[in-house]
Batch of 3 targets.
Target 1
Amino acid sequence: IVVIACHFAERNRLCTTTIERLEAARQFYQQCALRLAEGYRYLFVVTGDVPYESGSPTLCVLMHDYLIAQGISPDDVLTATGGTGSFMEPPLVIGLLRERYPGLKRLAVVSSNWQLWAGRPFWRRAAEPAGLSLRFISLSGTGGWRTRCTYAGYALLIRIALASGLWPWLERILSARVYEPRRQGFRINGCA
């Protein structure tokens, strides 16, 4: 169960959107309890390898700690480090899981509907060659209007770039100007 990070409410505190995503993932986990009894194993993978400011805990560390505080075993929570954002995280997460769990067959991705507008194509592109089936748990009602409108435009831009063959060019620009700087500090308010 992959839980996509949103942002910080403030230093060392997750925003309400991230907490809603974590809670939706926990509910899904609880719904899967019968399969756990049949010998299946469900893991959480948390994303968001960005600090609020340089030297502070990252979103994925805070998300990991949140799940542990809610009673999830530390052995069942992995942190995906090294990636930031909609197009970097899917291949990173799937690579991590395939390396550790070569028999993995299914993956659930939990995020807000507006984030998945942009992220869904990249999850599909990463999952297909790995032979994974995907389930998207898409939350509505999270984030503010500014965020939803921004992601609608972002998703449209991404889809045009993918369809036109311009994605490699756009990916380099987004990586350098948007995502890499987040490693030094990430204060965008996704709930606005």
Target 2
Amino acid sequence: AAAAAGADRLEPVLELARDDLNRGHPERVVAAMKALAARQDSAECQLLWAQAEDDLGDFASAQARVKAARRSFPRAPAVIRTEARQARRGDRRTEALDLFQVVLSLRYDDLETRRSLVNELLSEARLDDALREQEKLLSLDPTDLSMWARRGELLAHNGRAEPAKAAFAQALALSRVRQIQQMLSRAKENRD
């Protein structure tokens, strides 16, 4: 019960910290996280603190905090994903790819990580691997209009005309569905 009560008190602080980061006040987040320094049991607390340090220009401290969080939370997808992004930012591409794969082994349906993996594979000129990951992504979210369009572009630029046409056709169909949904939504708002 004590742990639950502690978690209840932590969530409002984390919510305020997220809001401060979004509003461009990382210094407030650092101060709040220092006040919660005893809360090493919260991966989200550690990640918010690392993001605030990074936003303040202290990438080395942010990296150290994420590494420490990884030791404390070795199977937390958000921690590993953050470490992967830091690796990519530090031009450690192979490490980033490996870490994105670890996240996906823990959470196959993590769309954000799968998108990051596709981007990383493309930056490494691994088109076939990127296309395979896109297929997985689109099987998880077949309504991802931008990913269908991007797939069409990749295929077209690499001489694969027929699959490109199919991807663009899917993107166009999704676009029309979204237009109709928006028109219906506006009509309903006008009626109410």
Target 3
Amino acid sequence: GSTVIGLNRPKIYRAVGRVTPNIKGSCVVQVGTRSVAASNVKVHGLDVYPQRALSGGAIYGIGARLDVTPTAYAENIEIRQCYVNDATIGILVAKDSYFPSMLDPGRVSSRFKNVAVRECVVTDTSNKAIEIGECVDSVIERNLIYACVDGAQVIGNCARCSISDNIIDVTNGAIQVAHQAEDIKINGNHVTS
């Protein structure tokens, strides 16, 4: 079975106190831990307000991020109909560091599988709205992204992913595909700036 988080639109604010500043950041909602993956998880209908100005460091809205065990991976993660406002990065599903071991055969075989970010609203991020990294067979679709610096990003050795049918209004880059990503489909997006 799947674990379902947040069906009744709870509002989650950053915990009282400051986040310890670090380059890896902290997540308001973390799927799994940074060393142990969580698979078969659905995050539906959450309203997340990280309050980045009060955090003292990088803070992410909803994240599934592994940075201790390079061969660990998660599969079947769906983030759907969530609202994220005022984060450094709105939604992040990725490994910690894409370089230099991104193309190591063990790491390539342990990419995240079947990640879906659908029908979310992400606004007012100081970095990217939605990022998936080191993922295969994954989608970013039917999201509304506005008042963010960057929009949707598929990076870090992703394969067979799609960015489709999103509405994106950002100040910098709307869609980015980079760092060894391949077989990425981009279609039906409406982009303004």
